[in-house]
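Can anyone check this?
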Amino acid sequence: METATAPSSGVGELRNDPITFEVLRNAFKSICNEASALIERVSYAPTITEGHDYSVSILTPDGRLVSHGQRDQAPHMGTFESSVQNLIREVTEFASGDAFIYNDPYTGGTHQNDVKIIRPIFWGGELFAFAIALCHWPDVGGPMHGTFNPRATECYAEGLRMPPLKLYENDEPVKPIWDLVSMNIRVPKERVAEMHAQHRAGVLVEERLLGYVEKFGEDVMRDGFEDTMDHSERRFREWVSRLPDGEYEFEDWGDRDLGKEDEPPIRVHCKMTIGGDQVTVDWTGCDPAPVASWGFARPALQSATYDGTMHCFPELAPLNHGVVRAIDIVSKPGTCVDVQEPTPVTGYCSGAYEKVDAVTMACWGQALQDVDPRRIHAATVNLQNFCTGGIHPKTGAGFVSYMWLEGGQGARAYADGNSFYMMIFIGGASNQPNETLERWYPMVYTSTEAVVDSCGDGEYRGGFGIWRSFRATGDTELVVLGDRERVGPFGLAGGSNGGPNMVILNPGTDKEENLGMFTTKAKLKKGDQLEFGSNGGGGFGLPWERKVESVLDDVMDELLSLEKARETYGVAIIEVDADALVYEVDEQETRRLRGELADDGRPRGTGPFEVNELGEKLFRDPGELDTRGGTPAAAATKGHG
C-alpha cells in the first residue's frame, strides 16, 4: 500500500511582504505562460500548436511544484514532482546547461507520448530550481501509428520508453541520444522540432527566473517559492475544515478489459475521509490492474486526484505543492490505478484518469452539498485517443495525426453542463481546426456538429457531444483507444448518464461499421467516410422538473429532438415553422406527460441514458439543495468566491 508524502511542517505567516508575495506568485505563473507560448510557436505538430497539449512548470531543487501555466494540461502537472524526484535519484550530478529527456510512465507518470525535457537551473553555482517542459508527441514508436495500442498486454508494445537521459550538455545536443530518439519514432523531423521547442522553453524559464533573482535576491525568491505553496495549503485546509467530517464513497466503471477473455468492466472506487482540515483519499478498493491498456501508474493517480479536487476548488489554481502535501493519497500497487511495469498504460487518459477524476469530484460533491452545492459536478466527456497514419498521397512522406473530441461537461446542481468543451482533462486545450488538419493529413472534413440528444438528462442537463466527419483522400490506418461507449458519464440526483462515444465507418451505407473505442489498425481506403462522436455530460436532477422554456430552447437550437423533449422531459412541442423558429408548447399535454413521467420507470444502471443508482442515492435534487434558479442561498452565505 502506498501513501502520499508527509504532511506539511506547518504554514504560518508570509516570509515576504504581501506585495512581494503577490508579485512573485503571479510572476511564477507568468513565466510558465510565456514558455508555453514559445512551445506553441516553435513546435510543428498541430496536436501542440493548435491543440495546446503541452505544459511548463517550475519546481524547487528537491522537486516540489511551485507553479505552472494557465493553459497547461491537468493530467501532466500532478506528475511533475514524481518526475523530478526520480531524476534526482537517478542523476548523481547536475550542471548548468544540462537538459534531460524523460517519459517513463511508471516513475514519472502519464504515458509514453508525454515527453518531458527537464532543465536544472543554477544560481551562484548552486541548484536553484528545475524547469519542466512537456509535450504530447503524436508518436513515440511502437507497432501502431500514434503509439496507442488497444491490444497491448505489455508496455513493450507501446513505443519508446526512456528513463532520464541527458539530451543537452552545456546547451549542446548530445547526439547519440538524439539519434536514439529519432531512429525509434515515426516522423522524426517533427519530433526534433518539439525537442528544440521544449529545450528553449526551459532556457526561457531559466532566463526569466534568474532575472527575478537579480532583482529581488536569492533569499526572497526562495521564500517566494515557500510562500506560494503555504498560501495554497492554507486556503485548501480552510475549505476542508468547513466540510462535515466523515467518509464519502463513490465508484465508476471502465467499459471493458480487452486483455481478458470475458472482457469484464473495470471498477474504480474511492473512499474519501475528512477529519478537521485533513483529507485522505483511498483508492485501495479499485479492481486489479487490467491486462490491456487502460490503467495508470501512481504518479498519474496523484495527478487525477488533484485534478478532481481543483475542479471543486478552482480558486486554488495553479496547482502547487501546498495542495499536494495536504492530500493523503492511498493506493495499492497492482490495482488499476497503481499499475506496475510491464502493465500497458498508453490508454490511461481515456481509461482510469477520467474515472478517478470524476469519482474524486463525486466524493467532494457529497461533502459540499450542505456547504456550497455550486461546486458539485456530474461526470463529463471521456477522451478518445484518435490516431491516423500512413503515407501522404500528395507528398509521399509519412504522417501521424493525433486528435481528440471535445464534448459535454457534467451538469451542476444549479446549471447545465457546457457543450463542446474538455475542461476535465485539458482546460487550456483547443480543438484542432479542420482546415489545419486538412492541410497536414489526407482528409477532408464534411461536417462538425452537435450530437443531437447526447446530453445526460436532468433538471439541469449535461452538455452535448460533438460529431466530426471526414472523407479520407488517401489510404490511411486508424487507431482508436477510448472508453465510455458502454458506460455513460454518470448523472447525479436522478439525472441520467450522458450519451456514448462513437466511431462509425461509412455511415448510412451498406458498408456501415461501428468501429468502437478499441480500434486497431483499421484500414481506411480513399473515399471512405468516418464519423466520430463524443459523450454528452451527465445530468443533474429529474428531467421532468426542467423548465419548459429551457427544453424549448434546446429544441429550437436543434440540440434536442421533439421526441426526446416529449418522452424524457414531458414537454409536448408543436413545430409550426422550423425555418422561422416558430414552435408552440401544448401546455395541457405537457402537464399530462409530466404527471406520467413522475412515476419514474426509467432504467437504472451505468449505461448511456440510464440512471446511476449511486448518484441518485447520494445526491439531493436542486429543490432540496435550494439551487433552482441559479446560485444557491447557502453558497451566498457560506461559500468562498
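Reply from J.R.: I decoded it. The mean pLDDT is 95.
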